[in-house]
């Protein structure tokens, strides 16, 4: 597993960037920036520390799938840590087996640092080899979209 890091400076308060990124005021803001990964991307659950959360979308056949995760930490407007531990196949949670073992236990961390009205969002994610190119291409686009949304 490789650790990837991405950063983006956004001309908005940390609170605004955090709320926009997580879709706390309107889930649509989360769905809009994550549409870079999947046009149907959304989440089901809570961002509260210790909560289970599903990151889901539908495939070309309309079947729901995604990640089964836990919010490992959440310090509002400062830091969010997501622990991925399973996959969702339709309505079935899969938490063991070869598909899960490749990346089980991986973390996705977001930090928000505000200075003079500009917030630097830093993303650190654990990625398997087969997703390196995809995430290296897609994360910068997603962060550009987040910047656009938060600066509106």
TrEMBL record:
Matches recorded under InterPro entries: ASHA1/2-like_C, START-like_dom_sf
Pfam families with a match to the protein in the record: AHSA1 (PF08327)
SUPFAM superfamilies per record: Bet v1-like
Source organism superkingdom: Bacteria
Domain Activator of Hsp90 ATPase homologue 1/2-like C-terminal: 11-151
Protein family according to the UniProt entry: Belongs to the AHA1 family.
UniProt protein name: Activator of Hsp90 ATPase homolog 1-like protein
Organism: Flagellimonas taeanensis
């Amino acid at each position: 597993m490789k650790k990837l890091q991405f950063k983006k400076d956004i001309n908005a308060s940390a609170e605004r960037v955090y709320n926009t990124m997580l879709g706390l005021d309107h889930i649509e803001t989360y769905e809009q920036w994550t549409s870079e990964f999947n046009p149907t991307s959304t989440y089901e659950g809570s961002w509260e520390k210790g909560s289970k959360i599903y990151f889901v979308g539908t495939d070309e056949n309309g079947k729901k799938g995604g990640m089964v995760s836990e919010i490992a930490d959440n310090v509002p407007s400062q830091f969010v840590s997501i622990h991925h531990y399973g996959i969702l196949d339709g309505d079935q949670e899969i938490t063991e087996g070869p598909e899960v073992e490749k990346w089980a236990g991986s973390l996705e961390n977001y930090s928000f640092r505000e200075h003079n009205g500009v917030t630097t969002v830093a993303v650190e994610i654990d990625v398997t080899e087969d997703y390196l190119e995809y995430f290296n291409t897609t994360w910068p686009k997603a962060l550009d979209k987040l910047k656009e949304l938060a600066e509106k």
